[in-house]
């Protein structure tokens, strides 16, 4: 049986970078600049011997602060409804921000099956972020580096019983 994983979280935490790594193609755009990726993007993911569908939630990057909440809420809710499991990414070098808390609330309200991923955790960079991520109350965070491919074995261990 296969499943659908939605990668959610605020702009710039590395969702598209992870999507690209899982899909193995440059399907999602990655950019330092806001305003590049849009809406929801679906791809066929491969993680070792696991195959599943992955959704990248984009489309939040171009909105202004006052419309961010409504827009990200709708997009994230759509992704959650399509997904069996959500990978909620935060930036381990930044820690938990108020915007991350808003996403956590959306996921809680939706009763989503959530995995917390502390991205940008290559080396020791994510140590503080990983500790802070506990405060989200969404379970045991895993440390990832989408860019450097670290933590993919931990992600696999969590996803394998689902797939
Ligand atoms: P998104 O807005 O959540 O889709 O984030 P992107 O995937 O577009 O990445 C935003 C920025 O973070 C880009 O400059 C990426 O290169 C960078 N980035 C993504 N993953 C990592 C990571 O694991 N480590 C570091 N240091 N940077 C990363
Ligand atoms: Mg993106």
From TrEMBL:
Domain EngA-type G residues, every copy: 3-163
Q: Which UniProt keywords apply?
A: GTP-binding, Nucleotide-binding, Repeat, Ribosome biogenesis
GO molecular function (one): GTP binding
Q: Which residues bind GTP 1?
A: 9-16, 56-60, 119-122
What function does this protein fulfil?
Answer: GTPase that plays an essential role in the late steps of ribosome biogenesis.
This protein's assembly is summarised as:
Associates with the 50S ribosomal subunit.
Which family does the UniProt entry place this protein in?
Belongs to the TRAFAC class TrmE-Era-EngA-EngB-Septin-like GTPase superfamily. EngA (Der) GTPase family.
| Name of the protein | GTPase Der
Question: Covered range within the whole protein?
Answer: 1 to 163 of 492
